[in-house]
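Example record

Each entry pairs one chain with its bound ligand, adenosine-5'-triphosphate.
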Amino acid sequence: MWEKIIHNYIEDQLKKSTLFIDESKLDINYIPEDLPHRDKELILLSQLFLLLITQPNSVSRKVLITGGIGVGKTVTIKRFCQIITNTAEKRKIPMEYFHINCRKERTGYKILVKIMKHFNKNFPSRGFSSQDLLDMLNDYLNRQNKHLILVLDELSNLIIKNDDIIYALTRINDEMLNASHRVSIIGVIKHISTLNNLDESTLSTLQSNIIHFNKYSKSQIIDILKSRVKIAIKPNVIDDNIIDMISNLVYKRGDMRNALDLLWTSIKIAEERNLKKVSPEFVRLANNKTISNFSQDLLISIESHKLLLLFSILNLLEKNKQSYVLILKIKEEFEQICEYLKLSILSYSQIMNYLHELEKYGIISIKIKSKNIRGRHAQVSINDLSLEILKNKLLSIFESRGLNI
Ligand SMILES: Nc1ncnc2c1ncn2[C@@H]1O[C@H](COP(=O)(O)OP(=O)(O)OP(=O)(O)O)[C@@H](O)[C@H]1O
Ligand SMILES: [Mg+2]
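Structure tokens for the complex follow.
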């Protein structure tokens, strides 16, 4: 019986049309060929590592990458390592890179074992000292005449433990005079202040080459989202206004991971509903799934006229399926509701005051399209709250206040 149920389920899922060209290209770990707005950082890295190609093993590099959450540190380093090792391969220069996440491999010893296992699957997990492992690594690289670029991602996990491994790895070639330089290191941390925990000699080695990754701006986030949409999602599923909405939601923190999550979840919602397009409401729903930053108490404290104005906005956004609505339209809709409830109608300037208040609460945002166009043509949008959820909350408040809408 189970076999049949599962079989039918899989068949049903297969019949559903997907909105993706290739879902894996939105995966957090996917490394895109193009990384918009990280060309400057890629060039800087290339400049630093150029000697590894022109004069193999004459130098080793120690570079530190800093920058906040989701600014593309990991993906840019991985892409860079792909590019440099491909270039080396074309020139028959033995070079490899290995990416280690120090949050997962929590001790220097585990990291060294992991590196050895990368070169030899059957390498034993126990039985050696750290110094043995370092010597074996050096021997191996010398025998193979190979250069290793070791990426120590989330390095702060090791730094705060004062693990000697960082020092040992940065000095691996220094002990022997005229020895070949076999290991380069790219360390990744979020805050430069983490370095305060390092001893002075390690600090001075790492501090010489620091590349800081700035937070992406709103328009940069838009470009990046577009580049990922192009390779991962079928045409016409995502409109520009959806991309705008997502970047509005994430740009303050500048976290691209969050942006890609929202994009992926909104597409999944559209697929679940068998629709061919992502609508603004799906972005709001996706966002409500990820962060719940809105309190019911706030709504309850707001006066009814203002809530009715908000209700008009919700109605219009629901009807027009756009991410924004014009103030002119809001006024019309609001007047109809007031008439229906036999409430006094507000003047245009009162409406504007109320809208600004709702904006201060963080419920709506108002965008003036152009200075030449008068205020009534300003756009009002609700970025991060699901209309469905908000509307239900409002209806229950109206009911408790005896307003029958
Ligand atoms: N310029 C870009 N182009 C395309 N995708 C990007 C770009 N920058 C970041 N991304 C994507 O955004 C997500 C987050 O990036 P990444 O994991 O590199 O951030 P991070 O700086 O390492 O963050 P954390 O410090 O939290 O680890 C990844 O899925 C990555 O592919
Ligand atoms: Mg990272």
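The chain has three domains: 38-212, 217-290, 296-400.
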